[in-house]
Amino acid sequence: MEEGPGEENQQLLKVLETLKQASHELRANPTPQAYESNSSIRALLELETETDSILSNDPKLQNLSHHLSNLKHLVDNFKKSRGGLSLRYFLNRRASSHEISKIAGEVESEIQAWIDRESIENLLRVLQQSNNEEEKTHHLALFEKRVSQGFNRDLQDLVLKSKLFDQLELILCKFDFSKKLREQAALAILALIKFNKDVFVGQVLMGQTIKALISLSSCSSIKVLCSLIKSIKSPLVDEIESNGDIKKIINLLDSYDLQIRVLAFDCVLEIGYFGRKEAVEAMLKEGLIEKLVEMQRSDLGGDLIETGRAYVVEEDEKEEIIRDGGVERETKRVSRERRFLERHPFASCVARFAVQLEVGEGVRQREKRAFKQEILVRVREASVSDAEAATILAEVLWGASP
């Protein structure tokens, strides 16, 4: 049975990964023992001299062919060198080892570039031709992992020339695809933003990525949205507000899924920090403060103004706090608050939003003062008792500077 192009590509990628690992090992340990005992290194050194080698027929691999030729020549001379224990012999060996290590690193880079070309071509083939969503998800995960390794100009050029971003956005926006596949496409887009925000942010802002993430409304998609807000900041919040999607994010605070509510609250906090006046006004108009008061009132709420009042501290922890002093006492307090928030994710959520707004970078100082007054008014109107209002108001006034 003949192998398809996908299987051939996978076999080639496995071989290339083995050769890349061999060059990495030779770079780290350029000694006779390394290449005499390692069959992969020997295969690497013989690659350039193989009959009908692909290197001699592909112009993209000419640099690799040149580096391999130099590497083999250096290694052969290094193996043949003899000179006892003289200083000259020792220095020559050190210089040769350094040169072998350097060229092995260049070979590793060239092989990685070869792997990237094959991987991008294979990914595009799978995304455009395969009907197997598991296969598509797998290849997108591999691409996300590769991009997450850090910036590489050659890889960036491959992504741009292939118009891969358009393919990722198409998958994310297409309701016919499974949630798992669409989420993986979203993760790949986020990886590209982290890879080089300056290049790919424009495609996010001009396309349908944000609307698709909000429409998907899964835990993974909201996490991606929150991460994109942190990365792109005010321009992304402007896009959300201009699309009328603030309301959809606020509505997620009413989700039956607790994790979605928690993640939606994280998004609200980020919008409060980076959002301009229009975005904050839109959130308040949609009843954000009223929802936050209700969330703080729930079993998952509470207050952090004095964390010790919000839950009972175990006796052994009380003793540790009494014994500790200074910085350690403060560390214990922060640790208690963190554990309390893990069990009560909406504790002091009104004040936490107010603080984000107060210290944020999207709203002018006079606008912050006006919003703070509006928040106080809305808290009084939404509270079911004077005691509840007093607690929340004290947190808002205490947590943010006047």
Task: Describe it.
- The chain has a domain at 121-232.
- The longest helix has 43 residues, at 87-129.
- The chain has 23 helices and no strands.
- The relative contact order is 0.06.
- It is an all-alpha fold.
- The chain has helices at 5-28, 32-37, 39-46, 62-80, 87-129, 133-147, 153-162, 164-173, 179-195, 197-206, 209-216, 219-232, 234-242, 246-251, 258-274, 277-285, 288-297, 307-310, 315-323, 326-343, 349-359, 365-382, 386-399.
- The N and C termini lie far apart (76 Å).
Give structural attributes:
402 residues, mainly alpha, 77% helix, elongated, ARM-like, ARM-type_fold
Which secondary structure elements does this structure contain, and how are they paired or packed?
Blueprint: H1 5-28, H2 32-37, H3 39-46, H4 62-80, H5 87-129, H6 133-147, H7 153-162, H8 164-173, H9 179-195, H10 197-206, H11 209-216, H12 219-232, H13 234-242, H14 246-251, H15 258-274, H16 277-285, H17 288-297, H18 307-310, H19 315-323, H20 326-343, H21 349-359, H22 365-382, H23 386-399
Q: What's this entry about, in short?
A:
The chain is built from 23 helices and no strands.
Radius of gyration (Å): 29 Å
Distance between the termini: 76 Å
Proportion of helical residues: over 70%
Order of helices and strands: HHHHHHHHHHHHHHHHHHHHHHH
How many alpha or pi helices? 23
Shape: elongated
